């Protein structure tokens, strides 16, 4: 006990006297965590394996990082959305220092360094930037290629990326369709208002530009896999039920019809029109079969569960984050400020695979990532205009592997009759061979103009057999059915590590079964195979009907008069007994950055309230009125709804939820009626759409 007190006093003195450890709260938390680990008091967490460190920099620098690039001398460069290009010298050390290389760029969202020059995709051009006189400052800006603009706010350009073929590639974001003259009902909330919007463009070293692939919506990430092949990441919205990462090849079409406005251009390699787009809300995999040349994403990333705003990604070609994850992709998310992990395989010559959670709790929304010379992963962040769950508006951090091996699902591979799961460490055989420790289900999303999609055609899978390998690191699950074109949730929550009995660090992942591989079905007499017979379905015993004497009209009227009138949690019509109308009408809208337009309002106890919620944002929102102090609890419950969340409007069953709207599409509204609580106090309202509840909230003061 004495040693603990001395240690705490030492830390307090160090913190308040300018010691090197930072804030007292953070230091004590780290001490308690290491102490708990040493005594086995708590399970290991993400930070035990992958540590996040903030790169220290002068307060005068605003690192809204739009791109990162490593230089030959080990320095790191980054561009900011404010148009600056900074060099970070000694980036891996305790005291990095910074020098401004260039400024005046137009919102660059990517950075490439090659042969002593920087390449930046600005709003209107791909620019080559060099330091001719060697003074450490840019003095030559050359336009390599340019493209038309309409001036729309959302006409971002992501890249450039250099692929195996020696060409540059740039993603052209669609514009905001907005309202008024730009409104285009068929295309949805995003549209093409200038040539080649919604396309991947190829730029040759001599500046010659040509269209490469189409059907993009908000393609915030562009990069290559470990083999140097081109991939891009997409964000949920109209025609995109959920975000994804996709392998890009020349002539591919990924589904958003707005890009087809340029399909009639002489240079176009896409020969579709909007007449080829189905209007009957097919499942996404069905639409791919209907539209000639449309391509399935390699791995779909379930919206709200794995993230909400897919951004930049990197391939770990060197195994910097552990040899067990070598060649896998690490994908950043702007909205959830987290990184997910993608393991790919090729089936019938096309990429598909699985996505897992990996590391959360970054300071801000992740846009770009780049490897440092020491194997750490630099993470550049910004949330301006988009907002995120991170506590900061921007930042530059490093992710460092501690050297410990996490107990994880390393990869999942499809088989002709099921899936094979590889683990990073041996599993406990008793838990691994118990079918109750696995939950698998398959589902899809709709292909339609509506923003996003509910989970569609959800079906649980039955496990017919389990085969554990001799080294206890691989489990093969035999299923009674393989649904091609669907996503599979694979949950192994009951699996434990051999020896320690520790649970998986992340117990679930989502596999995109674009194609079922050919191969022999596993034989029932395979050694070590545990065959699970199909459960018998017992016939239900009919319950005899009990006749009841109908109630008289007088009895019904008496019961109605005696029973107090209570409104449902979602009442969208004014109650008929509100003869004088509502006592108060409140109108709440939305503001950029995940904000309600009204932060606080007052009502009297028991008063009749009409609340009009206008979602004038470009994403979905709801509004829940909850008990005071219950925002975090209700928000977490909404997250735990998982695949059923969208169907349930992200409204969890909880006594803490008093009233609510439905989940509203962009630029729509709903009116609800409720009676304010009779007990005075502070109540709260919150949007529980995944990733929003930490930020998007307000206060209701119930008082006389």
TrEMBL record:
InterPro entries: 6-blade_b-propeller_TolB-like, BlueCu_1, BlueCu_1_BS, Cupredoxin, DUF7133, Quinoprot_gluc/sorb_DH_b-prop. Gene3D superfamilies: Cupredoxins - blue copper proteins, TolB, C-terminal domain. One of its GO terms (molecular function) is copper ion binding. Keywords: Copper, Electron transport, Metal-binding, Transport. Residues 97-343 form the DUF7133 domain. Pfam families: Copper-bind, DUF7133. Residues 593-703 form the Blue (type 1) copper domain. It comes from the Bacteria. This is Copper binding protein, plastocyanin/azurin family. It comes from Parapedobacter koreensis.
């Amino acid at each position: 006990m004495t040693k603990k007190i001395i240690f705490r006093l030492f830390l307090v003195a160090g913190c308040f006297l300018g010691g090197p450890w930072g804030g007292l709260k953070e230091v004590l938390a780290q001490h308690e965590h290491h102490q708990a680990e040493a005594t086995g008091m708590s399970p290991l967490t993400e930070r035990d394996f992958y540590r996040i460190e903030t790169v220290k920099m002068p307060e005068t620098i605003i690192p809204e990082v739009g791109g990162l690039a490593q230089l030959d001398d080990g320095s790191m460069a980054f561009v900011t959305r404010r148009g600056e290009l900074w060099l970070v010298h000694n980036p891996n050390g305790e005291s990095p220092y910074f020098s401004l290389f260039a400024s005046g760029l137009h919102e660059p969202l990517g950075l490439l360094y090659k042969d002593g020059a920087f390449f930046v995709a600005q709003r209107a051009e791909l620019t080559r930037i060099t330091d001719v006189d060697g003074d450490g400052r840019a003095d030559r800006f050359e336009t390599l290629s340019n493209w038309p603009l309409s001036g729309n706010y959302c006409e971002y350009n992501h890249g450039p990326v250099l692929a195996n073929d020696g060409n540059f590639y740039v993603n052209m974001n669609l514009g905001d369709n907005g309202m008024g003259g730009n409104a285009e009902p068929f295309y949805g909330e995003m549209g093409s208002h200038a040539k080649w919007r919604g396309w991947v463009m190829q730029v040759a070293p001599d500046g010659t530009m040509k269209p490469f692939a189409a059907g993009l919506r908000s393609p915030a990430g562009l990069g290559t896999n470990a083999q140097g092949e081109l991939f891009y990441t997409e964000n949920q919205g109209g025609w995109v039920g959920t975000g994804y990462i996709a392998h890009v090849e020349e002539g591919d079409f990924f589904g958003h019809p707005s890009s087809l406005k340029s399909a009639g251009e002489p240079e176009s390699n896409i020969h579709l029109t909007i007449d080829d787009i189905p209007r009957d809300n097919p499942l996404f995999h069905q639409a791919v079969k209907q539209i000639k040349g449309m391509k399935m994403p390699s791995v779909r990333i379930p919206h709200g569960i794995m993230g909400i705003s897919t951004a930049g990604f990197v391939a770990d070609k060197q195994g910097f984050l552990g040899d067990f994850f070598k060649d896998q992709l690490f994908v950043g998310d702007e909205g959830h400020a987290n990184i997910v992990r993608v393991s790919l395989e090729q089936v019938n010559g096309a990429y598909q695979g699985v996505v897992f959670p990996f590391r959360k709790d970054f300071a801000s929304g992740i846009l770009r990532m780049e490897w440092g010379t020491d194997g750490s992963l630099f993470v550049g962040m910004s949330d301006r205009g988009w907002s995120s769950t991170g506590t900061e508006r921007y930042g530059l951090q490093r992710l460092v592997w501690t050297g410990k091996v996490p107990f994880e699902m390393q990869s999942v591979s499809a088989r002709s009759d099921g899936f094979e799961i590889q683990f990073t460490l041996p599993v406990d055989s008793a838990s691994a061979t118990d079918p109750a420790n696995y939950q698998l289900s398959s589902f899809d999303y709709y292909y339609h103009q509506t923003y996003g999609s509910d989970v569609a055609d959800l079906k649980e899978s039955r496990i017919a057999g389990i085969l554990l390998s001799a080294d206890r690191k691989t489990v093969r699950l035999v299923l009674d059915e393989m649904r091609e074109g669907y996503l599979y949730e694979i949950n192994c929550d009951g699996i434990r590590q051999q020896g320690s009995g520790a649970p998986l660090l992340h117990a679930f992942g989502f596999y995109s079964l674009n194609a079922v591989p050919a191969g022999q079905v596993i034989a029932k007499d395979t050694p070590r195979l545990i065959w699970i017979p199909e459960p018998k379905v017992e016939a239900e015993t009919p319950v005899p009907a009990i006749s009841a004497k109908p109630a008289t009209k007088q009895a019904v009227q008496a019961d109605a008069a005696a029973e107090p009138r209570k409104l449902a949690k979602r009442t969208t019509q004014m109650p008929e007994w509100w003869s004088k109308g509502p006592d108060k009408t409140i109108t709440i809208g939305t503001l950029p950055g995940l904000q309600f337009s009204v932060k606080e309002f007052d009502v009297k106890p028991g008063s009749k309230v009409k609340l009009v919620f206008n979602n004038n944002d470009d994403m979905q929102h709801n509004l829940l009125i909850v008990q005071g102090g219950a925002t975090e609890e209700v928000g977490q419950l909404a997250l735990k709804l998982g695949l059923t969340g969208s169907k349930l409007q992200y409204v969890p069953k909880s006594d803490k939820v008093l009233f609510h709207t439905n989940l509203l599409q962009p630029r729509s509204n709903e009116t609800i009626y409720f009676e304010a609580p009779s007990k005075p106090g502070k109540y709260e309202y919150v949007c529980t759409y995944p990733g929003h509840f930490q930020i998007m909230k307000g206060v209701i003061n119930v008082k006389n």
